[in-house]
Amino acid sequence: MSSAVPLAPASRRWFPLESVRGVAALSVVAFHAYQNQMVDIVGGHDRLPLLTKLLATTSDLAVDLFFVLSAFVLFLPVARAGLAGEPPRSAMDMLLRRCARLIPLYYTVVFLVWGISNTRLPGNWHDLVLHLTFTQVHSETYIYWTDGPAWSLAVEFHFYVLMALAAIFIGRRCRRVTTRRARLVALAIFPVALMVLGTAWMAYHSVVVHTSYTDWPVWFGPIAKGMAFGSGMMLAVLTAAGVEFRSAWVRPTACAVAVALIACSVVRRSDDVATEWLHYLDIAASLLVVGSLVLARRTDPRWLLWQPLVFLGSISYGVYLLHEPLMRILRANGAVPARDGQLIDVWITATTVAMVSMAAAWVSSIIIERNGLRLLAQFDGRGGFREYYPHLVATGF
């Protein structure tokens, strides 16, 4: 926003969140490039443990931030419509919009990578079917196959379906009550339920049955991410309700606390179940950063409006989804330095992968993602097929 008088959070229709996504996507690329460069070093010794923890933490933070942002962006229209007593967007329309934006590139990457990896038919059809149905997150074997980062898209798709269905009942409940307080309660029930369910799931598997930290579907499945999605939805409710912070100290204080939480997560990180609880610090840090942007009436930070960063945010989905398979191709063709444990080679690898991924994401946004959005134009606001020839229907043709 560049207006002289900043709008209140409840009145705003746009927040500078794409730039945040862009920064988060690059942090994931940096960590995966570091992993790819340092793996199989002779002796298997981690010469840079602090850097490993820092990059791993920022990568986890970025993914949790994606979940919080997705929940916020999708639930904000539902919360605004609910508070106004208006019917929300139809469930079919909500799903179509997300599918048109995400599925074309997702399926393209899955088919291409699977086809290249499976050189002899019939190939591993189990892996392909799981990825095409977004159910690889329920498989301990295949959760990171084909395209590792795709697991988070599968988790988000579970959330999209659940929220689209829940929005129907939330909208009905909000229209039946007349007071603002009752509508706020109706809107808050679903986010709170997700947070409670996610926390109970984590507690059960870490305290009661002591599930191994390598049981990936438990710790990275949809239920385990309930706190992240529920928190983002609650932030949407607060924004729709008009909660705002006017003090000039809110943003710097929130960012300082967020940095402190990230530092604590880095220090406490280890290879055990306890690390999974550190995601709650990541979620809290994400809420502080995003909340300081969407709940403040002050002018948005200029660096978030910097056009190269805005552009990066607009292609961040492609960067996130494409960087791992592209990194494997670069490695196979000797386009990145050899794995020798040198820090300078890590940064060369990270920079190379980032640049190639951004170029590929830009091309894919033009060829694939835009055409996906054009397909969306075939449907009306209720999710039904749009009638392009009403005059022919009216005349009997």
Number of strands: 0
Main sheet record:
none
- Share in β-strands: under 5%
Shape: globular
Approximately how much helix is present in the residues? Answer: 55-70%
Amino-to-carboxy terminus distance: 49 Å
Alpha plus pi helix count: 15
The value of Rg in angstroms is: 22 Å
Model regions low in confidence, pLDDT < 50 over at least 5 residues: 1-5
Average pLDDT: 86
In terms of quaternary structure, what is this?
single chain
Structural class: mainly alpha
Number of domains: 1
Secondary-structure element order, N to C: HHHHHHHHHHHHHHH
Folded structure, characterized:
By secondary structure, the chain is an all-alpha fold. The chain has one domain (19-395). Helix content is 69%, strand content 0%. It is built from 15 helices and no strands. The chain has helices spanning 18-38, 49-84, 91-117, 125-132, 150-176, 180-208, 216-220, 226-240, 250-268, 274-277, 279-294, 307-314, 316-332, 343-376, 390-395.
List the helices and strands and how they pair.
Layout: H1 18-38, H2 49-84, H3 91-117, H4 125-132, H5 150-176, H6 180-208, H7 216-220, H8 226-240, H9 250-268, H10 274-277, H11 279-294, H12 307-314, H13 316-332, H14 343-376, H15 390-395
Summary keywords:
mainly alpha, 397 residues, single chain, 15 helices, disordered N terminus
Write a compact overview of the structure shown:
With 397 residues, the protein is mainly alpha-helical. The chain has helices at residues 18-38, 49-84, 91-117, 125-132, 150-176, 180-208, 216-220, 226-240, 250-268, 274-277, 279-294, 307-314, 316-332, 343-376, 390-395.
